[in-house]
Amino acid sequence: MWKAEGSPATKRTIDWLRLGATQDLLKNYISKSGATPLLDVDGLIVGIPCVLERKPGRYGGTYATPQLATDYAQVLSVDFHEWALNALVERIEEESNPELAYNRGRERAVKGWKRQGRSDDWIQDRVNGIENYKQHTSVLHAHGVKAGKTNGFASCADAINENVLGFRSKKAKVVLGLTKKSARLRDSLSRLQLTALSFAEAMADDDIAARSLHGNIACRDACSKAAERVVVAAKGATRIKSA
């Protein structure tokens, strides 16, 4: 939040923690929960287990509950505080109306893809692919695929990726130059590739259900065979080209 507001030098989280109103708020949390606070050398409350934590180091920062984060937003700016309150209200609305949550999430995703210059047709294929993948993982789960030490879901996904795209997910990202950890492979694929992946998943689902397959290995093999059939139909046009 501090970075999003432009990293104002006089409005760091430590500046917020030093405010009397913030300390009173934290004391109220402590009195209700009975938690043992973390104090600095001056007796300032700088941490409460599961409520407020400060992590040092390059990738550290201050982490807090949404309630405390909303209070901090008030310190950052009026506009930021208004945004935080609206976000909180939306979350409450979405708890009682899941369809509203879905529609809002979809709208945000569409806006993000449009900013990336994606076409309406590509966005629709991407949305369809997300829904299809959810159904696919549901089928896998119902047929005994488990994460565990050997992630059966990842194994099934790679069985499809390796055939349709020519590479497993991790390697495909490298080939496409997706260096950021947060980068999504499917956001960099073409409409044909997205459709081919969804088709392979749907074919695998039908095969798994029809033959009552069970477990990581059997379902992975079904995914691989389904993907092989898709590649033959597409005549290899879905394969990622190496640089």
What does this protein structure show overall?
A hairpin with a 5-residue loop joins strand 1 and strand 2 (45-47). This protein has 243 residues and is mainly alpha-helical. Strands 1-2 form a two-stranded antiparallel sheet. The chain folds into two domains: 13-94, no CATH class; 118-234, no CATH class. 61% of the residues lie in helices and 5% in strands. The two termini are 38 Å apart. The chain is built from ten helices and four strands, in the order H-H-E-E-E-E-H-H-H-H-H-H-H-H. It has helices at 13-17, 20-33, 66-76, 78-96, 98-115, 120-142, 152-164, 169-175, 191-210, 216-234, and strands spanning 38-39, 45-47, 52-55, 61-64. The chain is elongated.
Question: What is the count of distinct domains?
Answer: 2
The end-to-end distance, rounded to whole angstroms, is: 38 Å
Could you tell me the radius of gyration in angstroms?
24 Å
Write down the overall geometry: elongated
Mean pLDDT: 92
Discrete helix count: 10
Strand order of the largest sheet: 1-2
Question: What class do helices, strands and sheet pairing give?
Answer: mainly alpha
Stretches where pLDDT is under 50 for at least 5 consecutive residues are none
Organism: Stenomitos frigidus ULC18
Protein name: KilA/APSES-type HTH DNA-binding domain-containing protein
Question: Main attributes?
Answer:
mainly alpha; 243 residues; 10 helices; two-stranded antiparallel ribbon; elongated; single chain; 61% helix
Itemize the secondary structure elements and their pairings.
Blueprint: H1 13-17, H2 20-33, E1 38-39, E2 45-47, E3 52-55, E4 61-64, H3 66-76, H4 78-96, H5 98-115, H6 120-142, H7 152-164, H8 169-175, H9 191-210, H10 216-234
Antiparallel strand pairs: 1-2, 3-4
InterPro entries: KilA/APSES_HTH (IPR018004)
Protein name: KilA/APSES-type HTH DNA-binding domain-containing protein
Pfam families: KilA-N
